Amino acid sequence: MEKLKVAHEIFSIEKVYKSSREAVFSAWTNLDAKAQWFIGPGDWTLVDRKLDFQVGGKEILHGRFASGRETLYRAEFYNILPNERIVFVYDMHVHKTLHSVSIASVEIEEMDKTNTRLKFTEQVAFLDDTVGSQGVASRREGTMALIDKLADYLRKQEGK
Question: Fewer Cβ atoms within 10 A, N terminus or C terminus of the chain?
Fold first, then answer.
């Protein structure tokens, strides 16, 4: 059996939302809210979604692309400080192959009564011979798309 190389990478994304930190935090913690923005791209269809938001709780997001290719995201929450921080570990399977394992943190900081800064940091190990720089570019792009979808969701919720 050929030994696959592990590629380690880290990235951070920051965004300011015109929403309270309670609203930003809630969008990560509530299944119905998260289902509005934490989704795959246009040709992706939901197969299964679960969220047990508590320390030791799990999250699952399973989807299928039009091509038949599937993705499976499985997370476990390790540290939660309401309205301030979420730390979790997740693995990503692509078409039944373990693609990566990550530790991620979401830090939420109130700037003033109507603006909140979110900082998302992820340290990822790609396990399937993905070239690290290519993998992290793709992961960053996908995460940024989700962070932007979160902004759209928050705008709709707050009528902005």
Answer: N
